[in-house]
TrEMBL record:
An individual GO BP term: methylation
InterPro entries: Methyltransf_25, SAM-dependent_MTases_sf
Name of protein: Methyltransferase family protein
Keywords from the UniProt entry: Methyltransferase, Transferase
GO molecular function: methyltransferase activity
Keyword Mitochondrion found: no
Record has Transferase as a keyword: yes
Residue span, Methyltransferase domain: 56-145
Pfam family, one: Methyltransf_25
Lineage, top ranks: Bacteria, Pseudomonadati, Pseudomonadota, Gammaproteobacteria, Enterobacterales
Amino acid sequence: MKIMRLLRTFEWRVLPILAKGLIGSGFLALLCRQREDRWLERWLPLIQARAMGLAVLEIGCGDGRDTAIIHRAGLKVKAIDISSAMVKRASVRVPSAVFFVQDLRAPFPIDRTGVVISSLSLHYFSWDETLDIIRRIRAVLWPGGILLCRLNSTKDVNFGAKGHAKIDNDFYLVHGTPKHFFDRSLIFKVFSGWKVLHIEEKETHRFILPKTIWEVILEVETK
Ligand SMILES: C[S@@+](CC[C@H](N)C(=O)[O-])C[C@H]1O[C@@H](n2cnc3c(N)ncnc32)[C@H](O)[C@@H]1O
């Protein structure tokens, strides 16, 4: 079953790049690179300063990779994901974090926090739903609170930014899943009213093929 799914969803266009990678870097090295994704580590001092003693809210936590990094830094975490299978894996990884199986489009299970983290989980929604989620993130953050997020880049051609059915501008149906892709101007548009502390477009190597993402740190502007 897993093999059938892999064959169905594999981006065959990238086979030549993959083959070049296999020959150039060696298969073992490529496999190891899948595990390197410690993007949060450099932000831990900032997260610690802004958490204000409250639990960090992580949205779309997946299998708890980032949850574990936050927890190891001595911070409390409350994490949400729609997939009960993912939450099960995350709670095995970080038993003392608090997990919620829920849709991000439903109200968040906390009143206030100083830090929200969203790694590759804000791109599944229509424009209005995306704006509403961002509005609710803003509502739970204290003044001076921050959102750390990673977003699909419009250059992320290995993971759907090209060659898929268009739903709307930079919004495609990628193997049955709707996915938004962002350029710099769209990020400033979607986060209008926020203070951008950091914005960087980069490649990650958590998967075998490089993935192009934006890493963005935003602060709730105090009026
Ligand atoms: C690409 S994964 C990222 C996981 C994790 N943040 C990481 O970087 O390893 C996206 C996650 O968002 C979750 N997700 C997708 N749609 C969601 C929704 N409507 N509500 C909550 N979580 C959702 C998926 O289950 C998945 O675990």
